[in-house]
């Protein structure tokens, strides 16, 4: 598994912190807020079943190495032996919501191991969410490496 892929995917899960009433997430529909929190947990926990539910079948990721990945690639990366991700927080959050869709993004410093080797990367990312058949799923993610502050 490539560090860039894992890091990019993890950036997608930028909500690994608690949502407070003053956060931009407070205005999200409860079902979307729940799905976002579950997506973050699934990435940190390497929960393939949850990722299977939370990623649309037509999911696409433009990772931080300018490679295109699909749902199967993403799940494989996050559930691979030798991969782990520490909980993270998101800075410079961007939250936009409209009926049936949303963009959630920001900057996250991701740390963990990939193929048993430690990594640390800072990413600016955006996840696009779609509500379909009463369920929220990520349909697209883009991640770009940014320098550490």
Topology:
Layout: H1 3-12, H2 30-45, H3 48-54, E1 55-62, E2 68-70, H4 71-79, E3 84-85, E4 90-98, E5 101-114, E6 117-132, E7 135-145
Parallel strand pairs: 1-7
Antiparallel strand pairs: 1-2, 3-5, 4-5, 5-6, 6-7
Describe the structure.
This protein is of the alpha+beta class. It has a single domain (3-145), classed as Roll (Nuclear Transport Factor 2, Chain: A). The chain contains four helices and seven strands; from the N terminus they run αααββαβββββ. The protein has helices at residues 3-12, 30-45, 48-54, 71-79; strands at 55-62, 68-70, 84-85, 90-98, 101-114, 117-132, 135-145. Strands 1, 2, 3, 4, 5, 6 and 7 form a seven-stranded mixed sheet that branches. β5 and β6 form a beta hairpin. The longest helix has 16 residues, at 30-45.
User: Distance between termini?
Assistant: 27 Å
Low-confidence stretches: 4-21
Roughly what percent helix? Answer: 25-40%
Order of helical and strand elements = HHHEEHEEEEE
The level 1 CATH classification is Alpha Beta
**Count of folded domains:** 1
Number of helices: 4
Q: How much of the sequence is in beta strands?
A: 35-45%
Any idea of the CATH topology?
Nuclear Transport Factor 2, Chain: A
Overall structural class, as computed from helix and strand content, comes to alpha+beta
Number of strands: 7
Assign an overall shape.
globular
- Mean pLDDT across all residues, rounded? 87
Backbone CA Rg:
14 Å
- The CATH architecture assignment turns out to be Roll
């Amino acid at each position: 598994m490539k560090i860039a892929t894992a890091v990019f995917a993890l950036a997608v899960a930028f909500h690994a912190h608690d949502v407070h009433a003053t956060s931009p997430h407070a205005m999200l529909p409860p079902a979307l807020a729940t799905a976002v929190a579950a997506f973050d947990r699934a990435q940190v926990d390497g929960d393939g079943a949850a990722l299977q539910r939370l990623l649309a079948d037509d999911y696409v990721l433009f990772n931080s190495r300018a490679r295109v990945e699909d749902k199967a690639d993403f799940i494989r990366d996050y559930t691979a032996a030798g991969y782990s991700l520490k909980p993270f927080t998101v800075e410079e959050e961007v939250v936009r919501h409209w009926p049936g869709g949303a963009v959630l993004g920001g900057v996250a410093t991701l740390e963990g191991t990939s193929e048993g080797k430690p990594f640390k990367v800072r990413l600016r990312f955006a996840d696009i969410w779609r509500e379909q058949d009463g369920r929220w799923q990520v349909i697209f993610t883009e991640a770009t490496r940014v320098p550490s502050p």
